[in-house]
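Methods — Computational structure assignment.
A single polypeptide chain was analysed. Its primary sequence is given first, followed by the predicted tertiary structure written as structure tokens.
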Amino acid sequence: MRSIVLIAVAILLPGAFALSCESELRENVNLLPADTPPGVLSAELLAAAVHWVEPALPALVWSAEVPLEPGDAGYDAVRYLAERGLLPSGWRADELSAETWGAMLSRFLGWYGLSARQVRADPGREQLVTDLASALGAVGESVRPLALIASSEEDRSQIAFLGVVWNWTVYPRLIIMRPKIDQDLAGGLRPLLDELGNCVVRLEHYVYAPEDTARNLFLTNGDARMYVVGSEPELQAWPLLVPDGQEDDYFSFLAPQVSELVAYAAAFDGSRLGVRSLMALMPRLRTNLPPTRIPGMLRTPFAQ
């Protein structure tokens, strides 16, 4: 009979949350060779899970040690986890103990202040999927994304700016997304919010404004410098200080440094979008967020 090893994994007890992304995780497993070593499999699945929850997340560990060589199976996923502090020192490509898997989950879910559960010894493929699906169900209840949407002045059905305030996270940031060719506001905001979400993250709250009002909300604050800190697809050139006065070019993806990106993350060294600026423009904004909820949405409770 398999032993049960108690690991301090930051995930709520089974049954507390629904499983999330089970089918997506299994699809990822099926795309990998059948003989993928267990350690590599765990890294591939966890890296995919982090991408779903934390788009354009910058590296958190500089000069991270990567225990694989470029070209090795799983190198990109392992490097991604190592650079974000999610790869324990005991990780090995060819094996996966309960302690190592528990530590990987614990570090990830510790970003969201969740509590512990049991991890089965020497988890196999099915257990990896179940553990991660359970973890992602809990994480989906913990994050508080706030969509920022601006319509074009010329055509209110067209999207001029699309972003998400990602504050309930290990790295608070504004994620700027390039609208897809077929995305617009003709059908209202709800279909767009659904498209912005995924199997983990559901966008329920938004702030909408015409382009000129949005510019006042997002761009006018002389004491805050803007940095590009992460991107999709991932590049290694960040962080990049945006020259003063060029923020609008970056937000509209006209600047050559971001013109080929699908999305990127911006951080500010001063207060750019805060409670006061949002409240001051509330009469000119459209939102489903009650005023009493604004301070909580703009908090950064998990930032390290």
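Note: The two ends are 40 Å apart (CA to CA).
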